[in-house]
Amino acid sequence: MKYLGWRLLHGVGLLALLSLLSFMLSQVASGDFYSQLRNDPRISPETVAALRAQAGIDRPFPIRYAAWIVAVSRGDFGYSLAYHRPVAPLLEERIGATLILTGAATLTTWLIAVPLGIWSAARRGKWGDRVSTVAVSLVLAVPDLVLAIALLVLSVQTGWLPAGGKISRGYAQMGSIQQLRDVAWHMVLPVTVLVAGSTPVLIRHTRASILEVMEAPFAMSARAQGIPRRRLLYRHLLPAALNPLISLLGLSLGSLLSASLLVEIVTGWPGLGPLFLEAVMARDFAVVLAVVMLSAAFLFIGNLVADLLLYRFDPRIRTVD
Amino acid sequence: MLFLRYFGAVVLVVLTPVSGASGDALVLSGVTGERGGTLVFGQRNEPKTFNPVIAADAASRELILRVMADLIHINRATQLTEPALAKSWTVSHDGLHYVLSLRRGVRFSDGQPFTADDVVFSFQVYLDEKVRSPQRDLLLLEGKPISVRKLDSYRVAVDLPRPYAVAERLFDGLAILPRHILEPVYREGKLAQAWNLSSLPTEVVGLGPFRFKQFLAGQRVVLERNPYYWKVDQAGIQLPYLSEVDLEFAGSEDTQVLRFQDGQSDVISRMSARNFAALEKDRVRRGYALSDVGPGLEYSFLFFNLNELPEGASPEVVARQRLFRRASFRRAVSVAIDREALVRLVYLGRAAALSTPVPLGDKAWVNAKLPHIVRSLPQAHQALAAAGFSRAPDGALLDPEGKPVEFSIITSAGNTERLQMATLIQDDLKQLGMNVHVVPLEFGSLVNRVFQTHDYEACLMSLIDSDADPNPDMAVWLSSAGNHLWHPEQKTPATPWEGDIDRLMREQMVTRNRNERKRIFDRVQEILMENLPLIPLLSPDILVGAKNGLGNFRPAMMDHYVLWNIEELYWRAEAR
């Protein structure tokens, strides 16, 4: 309990530091939301200056930061200058789409990677392991974005998969089962890209940690006592190899909000990605900060969950504490 | 039962034209079509708001003009003004007083009647300094606002603070607001927050052909036919023909193009020449048509930093500015640029070289007597030699003080075409012995350097005119204006020729004889080409596409390129 309290305090401090850093970076970025108005020659500099003053972005940095901290502590993430709306509902509308995508991708990744990793470790050095190692390296080497674009072009050319987006035209006229199927169909492409991006790492880690415990003295003695291979693998080796996997699970959970941003932009998935990119380009800092803080909070919570799980499953950690 | 259904259909057909478009409906002659169907329009970005008072981004304005209407409208095909909510108007002899007669019996999309009170309220809101509408600047003539008074329920008087040559054009795109909905919000001072995308569809009320039905965050806005719209076709059928319009946001141009190719959207506007070429291959198999409308109202140019730099500016930049200030230097640069190569290589031929800093889409106003600029290195060398420049043994160009000529061009990193143009120009100028660097900057930083810090040497940029007329660019040409790119906000004109341009531009603004205006603006262009504060490069073509079977599709070179006549668009039977 004391451990948990200390970790939470630590997390809040970390987030505060991050917010300060983000704020400072936003300060360094040249231009602000109203700079783009200057592209319309009919709008006068006076109007732009007045809009700036109205939005309060001409105030000095410490005052703006203090105002932001006070607002956030009240649960108010500020006001989007582009949308003329509070940021919180803006994120709310889109966070679901991102979580569906990353949730499905994370689940698929784990369902593929862990069995493959174990299988590969059990066949270390044999041709199956070699083939899988080469394949994993190849997939790892292809950047997500290139894969996404290649798949999109392929989808359009062949008509196998929809060309980006989340729903087809005529979605409103579909029955609810059809609607569900339509969204799932649109998810295939981005999920594939995300899975291709994260599976190889997870396979390698699973394989490595299983191999590590295979070499451990207890595994050797178990083998010497004639415990069957399968039973040895699943009963004795897997639990012992769990630690690094739990840490990775934390990372996976933590990146639920951030992993898919780029892929969303390329495939036109209506999650936080396109919103974030546009906000960055338009200097709509309230939105940028909220997305950054939220994904940082997710990362922190993911790690916290992993640590708590480790605390629960690994007695060694508890004795240290 | 069968009888009932049949009867119901008949009643519907007979009643619809009559029910909404009563009174002074605007009859579009020469227009026929069939009602029904949905049009999906693929947009790049998501609109931010329905609120015409605060909207500043293109996506929002695209949306707003589907649900709102103006008093006097510029026909995108003819580029001339025509009656909209104002069915006619008269002008006083001095050109200062207008009386607009409004259409009677027109209703907002919630069924409430439209009267002069709505017009007066709309102008009150747009002109209110506390509201800070970007539209306000469009209603100021040299800093003084126009004023609007109610004469009776269907007549308003508009008084201009000074004569203005094309006053009717000011009303184009200025959405008339429903007083019964927005006045309470305005009184509370909360107008800026009104009508965002989370508003209820019933709250967003306008006079446009469509009304708000549904918003799916990050995906699309669904609009439905406004049952009270005030235009009918020649057969008396109430417009618009389409039942529904879906504005779909793709996030990026590439996704936008892919989704159009895949048939997920029906119409696509303003794509790059490369995407146009890519789509062309698949045209027949996929059943869409592409069209090149010709050069539009965008023009690209190169300019040098001619600002008075503050004390303490880097001596290097100050020294370089001495070069930039020479008209002979700018002329040599201009004649060394191979514009035809820019058109051919960057825009695959879908652009046109410029010989004046006026976009080619502004057909009536381009000074056609100005000579076409043909690339000529000997001419450039000659001009430079006459101004005292020389060549070092290694071929580098030396300025009259004997220093090598070297400068950097900043341009927007997000715009592939401009970046490519800058690179080709770098190569063109290298052949004069100039050492040019290209510095791609993110657009916000670019704008900041040009307008705020003046920390740059040369810049390659584009402007898109909002209207085919010289007036929208007043703020570019007047030396005191904030958008006088090369040296904004001058207290007094820095050079005699800038003073001349100021005088001529002010003169054309109040001249009501069109030929006389044209003569004055021709002279402005001559002065601009003698002094080259902006070195004109090219105007890109407007490239659009639509699925086969879309009737009355007539893309234009002015903004709202494809949807400007959305009330007339319809699906032919074979495309349904």
Overview of the molecule:
The complex is a heterodimer of chains A (321) and B (576). Chain A has a domain at 92-281: MetI-like fold, CATH 1.10.3720.10. In chain A, 76% of the residues lie in helices and 1% in strands. Chain A contains 14 helices and 2 strands; from the N terminus they run αααββααααααααααα. Chain A has helices at 2-28, 45-55, 61-73, 87-122, 127-141, 144-158, 176-215, 217-224, 229-240, 242-254, 261-267, 272-282, 285-313, 315-320; strands spanning 79-80, 85-86. Chain A has a two-stranded antiparallel ribbon. In chain A, strand 1 (79-80) and strand 2 (85-86) form a beta hairpin. The mean pLDDT of chain A is 86. Chain B folds into 2 domains: 2-287 and 548-575, D-Maltodextrin-Binding Protein, domain 2, CATH 3.40.190; 298-540, Dipeptide-binding Protein, domain 3 (Roll). In chain B, strands 2, 11, 12, 14, 15, 16, 17, 18, 21, 22, 23 and 24 form a 12-stranded mixed β-sheet that branches. In chain B, strands 5-6-10-9 form a 4-stranded antiparallel β-sheet, with helices on one face. A two-stranded parallel sheet of chain B has the order 1-13. In chain B, helix 3 packs parallel to helix 4 (179-187) and helix 9 runs antiparallel to helix 11.
**Major sheet description of chain A:** 2 strands, antiparallel
Question: Reading side by side through the largest sheet of chain A, how are the strands ordered?
Answer: 1-2
Helix content of chain A: over 70%
CATH top level class name of the largest domain in chain B = Alpha Beta
Low-confidence stretches of chain B: 1-21
Percentage of β-strand residues of chain A: under 5%
Please report the distance between the alpha carbons of the first and last residues of chain B. 27 Å
CATH-scheme architecture of the domain at 92-281 in chain A: Orthogonal Bundle
- The total of helices of chain B stands at 16
- What do we call the CATH topology of the largest domain in chain B? D-Maltodextrin-Binding Protein, domain 2
Sheet with the most strands, sense and barrel status of chain B: 12 strands, mixed
- Corresponding CATH superfamily of the largest domain in chain B: Periplasmic binding protein-like II
Q: Based on helices, strands and strand pairing, what is the structural class of chain B?
A: alpha+beta
| The CATH homologous superfamily of the domain at 92-281 in chain A | MetI-like
| Coarse shape of chain A | globular
Which band does the percent of strand residues of chain B land in? 15-25%
Mean pLDDT of chain A: 86
**What is the β-strand count of chain A?**
2
Number of strands of chain B: 26
CATH A-level architecture of the largest domain in chain B: 3-Layer(aba) Sandwich
Kindly, what is the distance between the CA atoms of the first and last residues of chain A, rounded to a whole number of angstroms? Answer: 11 Å
